[in-house]
Specification:
The chain is of the alpha+beta class and about 280 residues long. It has 13 helices and five strands. The chain folds into two domains: about 5-90, 434 Repressor (Amino-terminal Domain) (Orthogonal Bundle), CATH 1.10.260.40; about 110-275, 2-Layer Sandwich (Beta-Lactamase). The protein is about 45% helix and about 10% strand. A five-stranded antiparallel beta sheet has the order 2-1-5-4-3. Helix 2 crosses helix 3 (about 50-60), helix 2 packs across helix 4 (about 65-75) and helix 4 runs antiparallel to helix 5 (about 80-90). The protein is elongated, with a radius of gyration of 24 Å.
Length: about 280
Amino acid sequence: MNEERRRELGQFLRDRRGALVRAEHGLPPIGRSRMMGLRREEIAAFSAVSVTWYTWLEQGRDINASRQVLESVGRVLRLSTAEAAYVLALGGHVAEPATGTVIESVPPHLQALLDAWDFPAFAVAPGWGIAGWNHAYECLYSRISEVAPEQRNLLWLIFTDPALHRMLPDWDVTSQHFVAEFRAEAGPRLGSMTHTAIVAKLQAASPEFAQIWARHSVKGFASRQRVFVHPVVGELVFDQHRLVPSDVPDLHFVLYVPTAGTPTKQRLAELAESTPKR
């Protein structure tokens, strides 16, 4: 941890300590009027660290602050998720994603962004649940609005929906690619109840998934070309990209852009005209 980060960490901790309400920690006022702010020794006691060590931390001394200790201090200071991640980053630790995060729908301002996109786009939550989509995506995959919410999961649909399977001429390659990406992204969540449930459900429902999962392939996301064979307009070719909104980083947007030199854009427009908006 360099000197600048040490100073910033110390100041940040001091500010948050001073903003705490003593009564919320079961502590009496200091004197007759001071209701706010905990002493250093109180933070140290609640965090199970020595007073000297915590004092040095706030002073910006060059000490080794482990992830576990910073997380403990963060809990005592009642930091928000973003604040806790900031403290870990200042301490030289990469914040791990939350486990068991449940996102059932896209926030309105981000749904508006999806709706403004002319081409197919959808939002994926941490467990790969599809949390939102736009009209163009429903034109491409009309069953998305018919699927029960608990089954509206990208991996689940890839491995269990025969209609989607028929739309993917490269299903063998695509399915393996998705499983490798899912494993890479789920690494920090391995062992969580949410992750375990998704994997167990897929293993029971799809021998193909079970076989691919057993290979332990890991692959980070990369933009690539995607090909679909739509039952109405035929082949559609897209360049697939992904964006992560900075204010909701647990979501990521998958965006399809019609590949130049193909009739995809025109065919998609024909689909949009014939598909009513819900």
